[in-house]
Design brief:
Distance between the termini: 47 Å
Low-confidence stretches: none
Strand order of the largest sheet: 1-2-3-4-8-7-5-6
Structural class: alpha+beta
Number of strands: 8
Order of helices and strands: HEEEEEHHEHHEEH
């Protein structure tokens, strides 16, 4: 909790120094005498610019028990069905060692990409062309070069606290269980999101 409070102040400073707007909210969940523990729901969103297409966002809810209770990353809208759910992460050593796993992960058919990533989730409706595009794959691999803990996901997180993205499909480049607050790293995330967004737009307009 203290880390989140400290990060909030840093992010307010980041928004001020980079002349960006910031939406910050903190809510205390109701407690009672039988369970007198304070749980907080916190979220922050910062648009990259006045176009409000790419957002840096942080979320934390200490009452949630799943692995999405806290996350941080950049997000932008994408024109795909809202039922689509995709999550890509960097392949790790244990993935290569687990040769006898019965779970079959989606493959794009492009070995240079498939040999470096794992599709944790792939419920796709009309998105196959996006992730088989080599230019988009190049950007995704650069995301993992930047921070191997990151994931690239479509509709994996609830970001309805960002009004401009509420109810819309979105792509996220995000990290769970931690908030980014370093200024230079946030700018690099914005840059990666813009590069990915431009590739997706070019593909959609071809």
């Amino acid at each position: 909790m203290k880390n989140e409070e400290s990060s909030i102040e840093k992010l307010k400073d980041f928004a001020s120094k980079t002349h960006r707007k910031i939406n910050c909210c903190e809510k205390l969940h109701p407690s009672n005498s039988l369970h007198p523990v304070s749980y907080y729901r916190r979220f922050i969103s910062i648009p990259e610019n006045d176009e409000k297409q790419v957002f840096f966002a942080c979320f934390a809810d200490s009452r949630k028990l799943d692995h999405f209770f806290s996350y941080s990353g950049v997000f932008f809208p994408i024109d795909v069905a809202t039922e689509t759910k995709i999550c890509i992460r960097k392949m790790k050593v244990f993935d290569k060692m687990n040769l006898f796993s019965k779970k079959i992960h989606y493959k794009t058919g492009i070995n240079a990409f498939d040999s470096q990533v794992v599709f944790e989730d792939f419920t796709a409706i009309g998105t196959n062309q996006i992730f088989t595009n080599t230019k988009i794959q190049e950007v995704i691999l650069k995301v993992f070069d930047f921070d191997m803990r990151l994931k690239v996901g479509v509709n994996m997180l609830n970001i309805d606290f960002i009004p401009e993205l509420k109810g819309k499909s979105h792509i996220g480049i995000y990290l769970t269980n931690e908030w980014y607050s370093d200024f230079s790293m946030i700018e690099l995330l914005f840059n990666l999101a813009e590069r990915l967004k431009s590739r997706v737009i070019k593909l959609k307009t071809v």
